[in-house]
Amino acid sequence: MLSFEEIKSSLEHAGQSHVLQFWSELSGDDKNTFLVELSQLDLNELREHCERAAESAKADHSATAADQQIEPVSSEFIGSIRKSDHTALTGWENEGFLQISQNRVAVLLLAGGQGTRLGVSYPKGMYNVGLPSSKTLYQIQAERICKIQELANAKHGSKCTVPWYIMTSEFTLDPTKKFFQENKYFGLDPSDVVMFEQRMIPAVTFDGKVILQDKGKIAMAPDGNGGLYRALVDNKVLENMEERGVEYLHVYCVDNILVKMADPIFIGFCVSKGADCGAKVVEKAYPAEPVGVVCKVKGVYQVVEYSELRPETAEQRDPGGELVYSAGNICNHFFTRPFLNEVAQKFQGQLKQHVALKKVPFVDREGNLVKPTKPNGIKMEKFVFDVFQFSRKFVAFEVLREEEFSPLKNADGAPLDTPTTARQSLLAQHYRWAMAAGASFLDAQGKSLPPRPRVTRDEDPPAVCEISPLVSFFGEGLEQLLGQKVLTTPFLLDENRAKELLQAQ
Question: N or C: less crowded end of the chain, CB within 10 Å?
Fold first, then answer.
């Protein structure tokens, strides 16, 4: 740990001497705690960080420079659940299962965020959207890993493992660890669940000064999901992957309730194409939808934010009437381990810094705590997808939004991406699976419910039907269980109910 004099000198050099303005008022324990925190900062980079934050906040981020040299992803580098033929999809799925069965595939969860916008202080993965089973996002995802291992083993006679790497932050690491321990890792081997922490960086005022959230504590924030690449090095995660023989990573965000863990079709598509980097995308719902677009700029793959596209560009359509720039980014990616290693070792320092203007509580010059009513601070973030530019072979894979993308971002009352819409999306999907398997439904009074196979993701299905991931990963194997069955809503198909249905046959 650095001495007080060394830290004081470094802060003065960085133009941040105000950080110690309340030093004389701190207790001995508080001084020691503050010294530890300050020692963990990269004080050599602090001046550059603060200056870059202030300059970035003043810049015009609505510029259309990217728009001027944009082109869509070439068709030969795109696969699609909707457009690719059955033979190709089956071949990719078989390749994916083969890689999974050989212990070459892992999943990596980006889980550094709290559920603040949901009105809770705990990690978003611990949130229960109100399913009949009361399962949290973490449990749903853990059970999907259990099931994909089981499917790969059955297909290849193997005993495989899909390791689960979970990137947390200072805010989410301890509660996430405790939650997994209390729930016995949801049936997974604890040694195959590897949690690690991303870096925290100081929040900065508009004039480039570090914000104090208390007299002896700097206001810190995670460095965005693009902080993954630094965290992989800091925590020796890449070495762990190599020791396990992992070659392919499926990386995703915690808030998507429909995410297909280690999706064998996506993995197999990327491996078959020889890709080092890939992105799942969904077709944009409409030209001005506020979602980033996967495309090429100056011949380099990247995600262009919707605010950087002119309306006339966003509205372009091809001869078939489809949007030219339709590949909506859903933060669902494929990387090879060698690519991640190269990015972490060579390129992570080159990643673009994105500005987020936030309301950051602070202590004023008199030491009083102030909770601002409008943005007063800058949090700098890196995005996980900003590494596309370093790929030697990039591919995109289009999936159906109603089957694979329903994020949880806002509290109920907001128009989109709420606990209600997430729950509706999952239950609508499971209702479609049950109908496809040949089931029919009765209401609670025993009255027949007319089938409605075209239920969309943002409406309640006619019947409530939840299917455990431990029973079916993505709708497979349900004909034997539900075919010609008459089910009463609400219907919960868990492992015990599945056994009962099989024994009754």
Answer: C
